[in-house]
Amino acid sequence: MININRCFSLVLSFILSLQLTACMSNGDDNALQDFIINEYTFFSQEHDLHEIQYSVDGAMAHGEHIVLWNTGFSRVGVTKLSSDGSIFAETNIQMSHNPLQVLGLNITNDELYEIIFTELKPGGDIVIHYGLYNQQGGEISTKVLVDNVARSDESNNAGQAVFADDGNIAIVLQNGSDRSTLYLFSDGEIVKQSILSSNQCIVRLKSGKLALSQQDDTNTLREFDFSTGDWGEEYSLAVSNVQRMFQTDSLQANDLLIDDGTYLIGYALESNTQNRFINLLEIGITGTQVYYCGLLPDGSIFLLYSERLDNRGLASWSNKLIILSLTYNPNPNPTEQRTIITIGGRWYAEGIQHEVIKYNNENGEYIIELIDYFSDSISREAGELRFFTDMITGRGPDIIVDAGHNLINQEYLADLNVFIDNDPELSRSDFFQNILSSLETPDGKLPLITNAFYIWTMLARRDNTEKLEHFTFDSLLLRLDELDALALAGNYMSRERFIRNAIQFSGNDFIDWDNNKANLDSDAFIAMLDIASRLPEQKDARITISEDNNLRHLFNGRQLLHEYTLMRPEDYYFMQAKARNSFVAIGMPTTSGGQNIVQPVEGIGINIGSQNKEAAWDFVRRFLLPDGSPFFGGIPLRIDKYEEIITELMTPVFWEFTLPSIGAVTGEEQFKRFLFNGEEIDVYAMTAEDAVEIRGFIESATIRHRIDNALMAIIEEDSQNFFNGIRTAADTARIMQNRVQTYLNEKG
Predict the structure, then answer these.
(1) Which sign does the torsion angle of CA 44, 48, 54, 56 carry?
(2) Residue 400 forms beta bridges with which residues?
């Protein structure tokens, strides 16, 4: 099911037609050529044609149609599309007066809709329902399948329901980030209930039977025996990186489709053979973005996926449907054998995907494949373990993608400074030196590099900066009672968030990340705990957090500080312009004063054990050249690319028109118009003074943000004893020091 955070309004508009070429491999005689890709987008309400305003929950093939279902607060919309993407029929079904979520949909032989959905009761429990509805949305019958399931805030009780040919139903409901519950129903009665790990899903096989996939190092598939409530046939899958599985009813001898993050693979269970049908990179997507896939009788394949859009660092999500019409060439030209180099990591930005496609099209000697360790269907812990195991045993990818999440010890990565110094088109002076230095290890090596970054800081009113001049935890604690503000940093700033920020944004003050040393029994850490105790235990869920609300509260003196992320150079200028230049960035508190924090948009490095380092560098350097693709927005690391943006912002735009009475009239066009604090404010071209202030802000960033979730769990657990009055801050810090140092020693 598509993550609810990525769901947007469903509006159909044709935007693109293009042709690509791909090839089958692993023994299939046919080659897939001349893809005709009709791409449709679902992210706005620009057309009166289709105004369903609910989230896209899923899709399936039904006869010659593609069926989409989408959930509102208490209703479900079902849309049938023809194979050309046009709307065939639409149905709206009112199902409940409480929030609901669709787990699965089936269409019977009588063209009735069977829907499995969860309902959130006012008391907080979840109920799983079965409903049967006609084509007009009328209810025929409903039944409660499971009552009073405890709600999980971590997973929002998302899940999956799949129907077998004989009417049996299998449901997986997530109960948290690392567990889920399996329910099997036969004739509407439960025949099995068991606890699963979260990285498992149900797939309907070509035989019509249902099976459960175990997506870990074993990659097994077990059929359900509904007559006994036990397991049936078990299959071992010879696919190393199973991301998702999809049913197929008409694809030659294949029992199911498997997405391995790079390819869409047809898989035959009895013969244990596979055919790579589609290279997902060549159509511009990766496995972590594909949610539903199906085949139509005319041979078309559809993919429902979610694309992250970017406007120089501002992200949004667009749900898209691609229909691939396939033409087979019985006599394909043999492809030249190329050496494979691999990329592995947590998440692949749009820029990396696009550059892989270009590299593979242009390079005759090497071809890049993605290894996706961290798909939505695999838990973070399982992904990290697999990644660590591959690196330690010498099977790790040639190129590592990591945005600073400490996936791997830096001794496993090559020094990129060596490659930069030997590159005829690159120099360290091409980049902001303070940002480059923040990415280096203490001995001057550069294990990872980015081509763009964000900066984290705190904003304060200029008239408060004298009191906050020495922005340390000790001084902040002393000044809290003197400063007249209703909130320290807005209602979103909870104790947990403040502590987490203090750890990850204070360099080596509390955790010496380079030497694995804890320093939690210090006066500064004790002062930080004392400040945290004055914050709310949790953020106020009733308050809608918005940048403008917090800036307005800061502007009016209702809060002392505002945590701010600079994602694009123009954002700081626009923010200051609409607030009448009343703010100043004072950094994040550290033991030596306020410091602005560097966060790489994406990090990329080379495995020190790679046998193809030069080929890997040939790919990495593409992102560092003047015309290199951005990973995903942010402030450019290259100084010349940054200056191009500033020059554009400093160039005024003029309008001109002629009035009969007075002749030509000209004036400067505003860049933006804001409504802020009840006042309409026009922002014009940036001045030289503005450019100097922003450049100084960027060049003052010195500390790279670090985080370790297991370490944070220890600190958050122990801090509760202080907040609950069981221990003093000093005693709490001493115990934390021992526990965290033990963890760091064991981690090595």
Answers:
(1) negative
(2) 344, 605
The pTM assigned to this predicted structure is 0.70
Whether 654 and 664 have beta carbons less than 8 Å apart is answered as no
Domains and CATH numbers, the chain: 4-335 (2.120.10.30), 345-451+601-632 (3.40.190.10), 453-597+686-747 (3.40.190)
* 326: number of Cβ within 10 Å: 18
Give the tens place of pLDDT for each residue, 172-221.
887 765 678 889 999 888 888 888 865 677 888 888 888 888 755 567 88
Residue 571's nearest CA partner among 559, 583, 554, 561 is: 583
SS (H, E, C) 458-526: EEEEHHHCCCCCCCCHHHHHHHCCCCCCCECCCCCCCHHHHHHHHHHCCCCCCEECCCCEECCCCHHHH
Among 100, 93, 167, residue whose Cα is nearest residue 127 = 100
Q: How far apart are CA 276 and CA 263, in angstroms?
A: 6
Q: How many CA atoms lie within 13 A of 435 on its CB side?
A: 28
Q: Which residues contact 226 (CB under 8 A, 6 or more apart)?
A: 164, 166, 168, 184, 186, 191
Listed residue (704, 709, 700) closest to 747, CA to CA: 709
Do residues 655 and 693 lie in contact, with contact meaning Cβ atoms separated by under 8 Å?
no
Cα–Cα distance for residue pair 654/669, rounded to 1 Å: 5
Structure tokens, 598: 């560097």
Decide: helix, strand or coil at residue 399. Answer: strand
The pLDDT tens digits for 582-627 are: 898 899 998 888 899 998 888 899 999 999 999 999 999 999 999 8
Instruction: Match 């139509």 to its residue by tokens.
Output: 296
SS3 readout for 170-203? EEEEECCCCCEEEEEEECCEEEEEEEECCCEEEE
Radius of gyration, CA atoms only, the chain: 28
* Residue 472, Cβ density class (10 Å: 0-12 exposed, 13-18 middle, ≥19 buried): buried
Which of 185, 182, 178, 177 lies closest to 149, judged by CA? 182
Residue ranges in 277-405 assigned as alpha helix (H): 350-362, 380-392
For the four alpha carbons of 285, 290, 292 and 295, in that order, the dihedral sign comes to positive
DSSP strand pairing (113-120 vs 126-133): antiparallel
Dump the DSSP string for 89-115: EEEEEE--SS-EEEEEEEE-TTSPEEE
